[in-house]
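Our working data are protein records whose layout never changes between entries. An example says more than a description, so a record of this kind follows.
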Amino acid sequence: MVIVIPEGSDGHLSAAVRIAHNLLSYLRIASIIVHDREASHELGTGVYGCSNYVIMGGHRNEFGQAFLASSPAPITFTKDGWTLQGRSFDSAGLGESKYLARERGINETLGMAFLYRHPTCETGLSLFMDATDDAGLERVLRLFPFRTGVMMPEWVITGPEADMLGAGGFLGAGYVK
């Protein structure tokens, strides 16, 4: 497993270390944590083979951005969040107009995870994880499947309600055609 984090992000490094530790402890899966620039440099060399990827950091992750730019994906990262099939999700609005979001007092801390194909291998997968802040990152980290046989959708967006309601606090989840 290759965990790719943006350079200079202590929050993402902490999250990556916890993921790597849990993968080794529970599943005996070895992993490596690399910065986005290093991963971009090594991508064409085949150093990582068909290892699955966890790509954290959204628009701050140069590797993830380059990968998604080379292959159309249903999700694109923006400075403040992301868009899913044209619908915006960020701290100022949950897929609705910014005016309605402000009118309703919505100022959400969101987390997002989605599965996508591997950049070079047909049998591998990439898991993208992003959040609007540290609380959103912690929330989406809880969704990482540390056990086998755990069913998860291809994409999920969490809000603050997930702290108390678990899956009932999902703002959206599903599969992409």
Remarks:
- Residues 97-101 have pLDDT under 50 and may be disordered.
- The chain has one domain: 2-174.
- The first helix runs from residue 10 to 27.
